[in-house]
């Protein structure tokens, strides 16, 4: 319509002008046709521009919808709150409605890509650290992100993978720190340089590097484990060596009576003599210089021991003689010492071998003494009982024993105890005989007491005791005969003389000598035994013989209880009060 109205207006305007100008009709028609053609051309151009603009808008709308769909698919979203539900309105209105949603989705996509890139970068870095292909000083390259799949599900998968790797990294880092701590402790005990030891495994393991920057690769863990094993084995070997040296030091000190002050200089060596590997934690306790110091001291003491060999050997011989003396085993100490002198002077035997042989002799002597201990204890009891028996005989012969003199009540109490002890002698002797015979049957050798067979001593004691009982019986018979004669004389002459005590029974009251004869019931072997012991006791450190205890005779022949009862009944009666 607007085209035809314009055409009419154009026609009226030129007519007036043409009339005024005087244009011909032909010119007028020609100019009108030209105007009509120009108007048609303008119209066509406008229509074409409008159609092109519409097509472009439609294409932009289609591209926007496609892009919107792609973004939603990449982000894993099924819908978006900013997208209009209905496609109504003009094309521009539709584009204007979609544009904010596209802008938000693009922004969300960029953020999602950044998140994926960060997660994948961390994953790539940790994997490189575990594999050992990534140096801690290097920066990992930016990983390629698959923009076709930016869904939260995929992102969660990456996060899960990252958490697993972070957990593994944490565990590996914990192991690395444990290994490093163990290496530090071992190096401290062994006196080694921790820094150089640990940096040989990996440069990042020194103290100046932060914890998160330490290498956690498989190679680092493997090398750390090997280093720890090597250090532990070294510690074990050094401790074994140090304990051997400490044992040698103590043996040499004991051998040469080294003073405590000198020993204390090596307390840091001997303090670990019985320690386990895990118990040794003191820094420098197993350092090489300490072990070398102990080796030098052992070598010095070995040389000193060689020069003091005779003194040491004689000291062990004295120990051996003391053991035999306490066990009442007779030996020839002079011959043994001469033999030791000859061996040392000849040089045919190594000092260590000689001392080891003497140690074996001492050990065997201790075993022998232990096997004799039970019998010797009973022998001591028997000898003490014999001494009390001897004292009781003297006491019973004292006519003034019941007088109210000073100490009389003490003697009376001792006499009561002595009688009880004397009554136990037969059973004690019987036990001694049984044990001695069992001992001899087991070993096939006689049991000697200071060189005298114990059974022979017991037999002699039994014989002397029997002789003493016979003597007492004769004395009782003689006493009865004298009493009968006195009674007859009293009947004939009317007077009663004082009873005469047989001259042979009188004796001065006092302590008996060790070697009392057989008259009082103790065997005459006592003298021979005491004399023998004075020559066979081992020497003390002052070179004197140990003769402090008088030895009563040993007897292993059982005496019947009737004999013991007759001995007690044969004694003078004891009143109830002095």
TrEMBL record:
<dbReference type="GO" id="GO:0005634">
    <property type="term" value="C:nucleus"/>
</dbReference>
<dbReference type="GO" id="GO:0005874">
    <property type="term" value="C:microtubule"/>
</dbReference>
<feature type="region of interest" description="Disordered">
    <location>
        <begin position="469"/>
        <end position="578"/>
    </location>
</feature>
<feature type="compositionally biased region" description="Basic and acidic residues">
    <location>
        <begin position="469"/>
        <end position="485"/>
    </location>
</feature>
<feature type="compositionally biased region" description="Basic and acidic residues">
    <location>
        <begin position="539"/>
        <end position="548"/>
    </location>
</feature>
<dbReference type="GO" id="GO:0005737">
    <property type="term" value="C:cytoplasm"/>
</dbReference>
<dbReference type="GO" id="GO:0008017">
    <property type="term" value="F:microtubule binding"/>
</dbReference>
<keyword id="KW-0597">Phosphoprotein</keyword>
<dbReference type="GO" id="GO:0000911">
    <property type="term" value="P:cytokinesis by cell plate formation"/>
</dbReference>
<keyword id="KW-0206">Cytoskeleton</keyword>
<dbReference type="InterPro" id="IPR007145">
    <property type="entry name" value="MAP65_Ase1_PRC1"/>
</dbReference>
<protein>
    <submittedName>
        <fullName>65-kDa microtubule-associated protein 1</fullName>
    </submittedName>
</protein>
<comment type="similarity">
    <text>Belongs to the MAP65/ASE1 family.</text>
</comment>
<dbReference type="GO" id="GO:0000226">
    <property type="term" value="P:microtubule cytoskeleton organization"/>
</dbReference>
<keyword id="KW-0493">Microtubule</keyword>
<feature type="compositionally biased region" description="Polar residues">
    <location>
        <begin position="522"/>
        <end position="538"/>
    </location>
</feature>
<keyword id="KW-0175">Coiled coil</keyword>
<keyword id="KW-0963">Cytoplasm</keyword>
<dbReference type="Pfam" id="PF03999">
    <property type="entry name" value="MAP65_ASE1"/>
</dbReference>
<dbReference type="GO" id="GO:0005819">
    <property type="term" value="C:spindle"/>
</dbReference>
<feature type="coiled-coil region">
    <location>
        <begin position="40"/>
        <end position="67"/>
    </location>
</feature>
<keyword id="KW-0539">Nucleus</keyword>
């Amino acid at each position: 319509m607007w085209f035809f109205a314009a055409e009419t207006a154009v026609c009226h305007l030129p007519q007036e002008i043409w009339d005024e100008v005087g244009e011909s009709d032909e010119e007028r028609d020609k100019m009108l046709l030209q105007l009509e053609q120009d108007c048609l051309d303008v119209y066509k151009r406008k229509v074409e521009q409008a159609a092109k603009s519409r097509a472009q808008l439609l294409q932009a709308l289609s591209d926007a919808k496609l892009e919107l769909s792609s973004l939603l698919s990449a982000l894993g979203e099924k819908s978006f709150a900013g997208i209009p539900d209905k496609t109504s309105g003009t094309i521009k209105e539709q584009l204007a409605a979609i544009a904010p949603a596209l802008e938000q989705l693009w922004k969300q996509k960029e953020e999602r890509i950044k998140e994926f890139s960060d997660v994948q970068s961390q994953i790539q870095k940790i994997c490189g650290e575990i594999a050992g292909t990534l140096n801690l000083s290097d920066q990992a390259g930016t990983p390629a992100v698959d923009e076709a799949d930016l869904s939260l599900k995929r992102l969660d998968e990456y996060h899960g993978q990252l958490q697993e790797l972070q957990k593994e990294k944490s565990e590996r880092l914990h192991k690395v720190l444990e290994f490093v701590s163990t290496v530090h402790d071992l190096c401290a005990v062994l006196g080694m340089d921790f820094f150089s030891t640990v940096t040989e495994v990996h440069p990042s393991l020194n103290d100046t590097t932060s914890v998160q920057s330490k290498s956690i690769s498989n190679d680092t863990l493997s090398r750390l484990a090997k280093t720890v094993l090597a250090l532990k084995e070294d510690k074990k070997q050094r401790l074994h060596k140090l304990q051997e040296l400490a044992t040698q030091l103590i043996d040499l000190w004991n051998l040469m009576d080294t003073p405590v002050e000198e020993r204390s200089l090596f307390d840091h060596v001997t303090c670990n003599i019985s320690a386990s590997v895990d118990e040794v934690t003191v820094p420098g306790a197993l350092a090489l210089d300490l072990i070398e110091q102990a080796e030098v001291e052992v070598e010095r003491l070995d040389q000193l021991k060689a020069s003091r060999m005779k003194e040491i050997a004689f000291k062990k011989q004295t120990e051996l003689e003391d053991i035999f003396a306490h066990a009442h085993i007779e030996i020839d100490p002079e011959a043994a010492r001469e033999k030791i002198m000859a061996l040392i002077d000849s040089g045919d035997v190594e000092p260590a071998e000689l001392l080891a042989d003497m140690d074996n002799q001492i050990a065997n002597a201790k075993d022998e003494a232990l096997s004799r201990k039970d019998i010797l204890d009973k022998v001591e009891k028997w000898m003490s009982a014999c001494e009390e028996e001897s004292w009781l005989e003297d006491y019973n012969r004292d006519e003034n024993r019941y007088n109210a003199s000073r100490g009389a009540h003490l003697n009376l109490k001792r006499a009561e105890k002595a009688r009880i002890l004397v009554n136990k002698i037969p059973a004690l002797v019987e036990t001694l005989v049984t044990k001695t015979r069992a001992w001899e049957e087991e070993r096939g050798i006689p049991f000697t007491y200071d060189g005298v067979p114990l059974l022979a001593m017991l037999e002699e004691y039994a014989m002397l005791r029997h002789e003493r009982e016979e003597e007492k019986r004769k004395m009782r018979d003689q006493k009865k005969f004298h009493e009968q004669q006195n009674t007859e004389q009293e009947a004939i002459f009317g007077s009663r003389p004082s009873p005469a005590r047989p001259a042979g029974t009188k004796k001065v009251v006092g302590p008996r000598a060790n070697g009392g004869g057989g008259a009082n019931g103790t065997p005459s072997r006592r003298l021979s035994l005491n004399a023998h012991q004075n020559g066979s006791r081992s020497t003390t450190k002052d070179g004197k013989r140990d003769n402090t205890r008088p030895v009563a005779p040993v007897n292993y022949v059982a005496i019947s209880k009737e004999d013991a009862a007759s001995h007690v009944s044969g004694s003078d009666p004891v009143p109830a009060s002095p």
